[in-house]
Amino acid sequence: MRRLLPALVFICAALVPTASVAQARPPAPSAQPTRRPPPPRKPPVGVRAYGFYEFQALSASNSFKAVTGSSTTNGFGGGFEVTNVFSKVFLRTTFAHAGKDGERVFVNNGQVFKLGIPLTIGMTPFEIGGGWRSVVDRRGRYAVYVGAGVVFLNYSETTPSGTSDDNVSKTFTGYSVFGGFDRAFHKYLVAGVEAQYRGVPNAIGAGGVSQIYNETNLGGFAIRALFGFKR
What we know:
Radius of gyration: 38 Å
Structural class: mainly beta
Distance between the termini: 96 Å
Helix content: 10-25%
Largest sheet: 8 strands, antiparallel, barrel
Number of helices: 3
CATH topology: Porin
Strand order of the largest sheet: 1-2-3-4-5-6-7-8
Number of domains: 1
Order of helices and strands: HEHEEEEEEHE
Low-confidence stretches: 7-16, 18-24
CATH class: Mainly Beta
Mean pLDDT: 86
Shape: elongated
């Protein structure tokens, strides 16, 4: 027994430092979960309402010049857009109206003879379309856009005291392609310039002056100056 007691004391003394070192050793760091960057925030859906002045150079230039003395028109209109429908995609509707006064004519061998009968021509295009708009500066003030749409053009000819054959009102279907840029001047104000080509094929050319000049398209190239509100 006397021999066993010193042996137990020696074993305990040898084990005590090992246990202390084991307790003092810091625990192994646990693996930290990888943080993923947050997904880009989708821009909110917005709306725009605007008015515009439109200058158009008509495709049927010879026909309109013979009747009205000019191949261009000036008109006014308005539009409404829903922006950021999907990413940078927007949808829109626009309408405009342009009128032109002239007189009925007769063309023979390229020479125009005025008949002295007053004539008023009206054109009212209604457009449904969409496009893609992108901001091009860091402050978000300037943007460029392109798009296309379907155009329903109401064309009318009116002669004072004229018969039903003299007065015409028809609607034709065509297309439009457009592009432009705009600038935000305030949180809710925006202005811009747009170039547009409207094609309305096979609308005229079946008779009268347009048949002589072999012109069938009631569309043309237009420039618009826009000003409106956005949210």
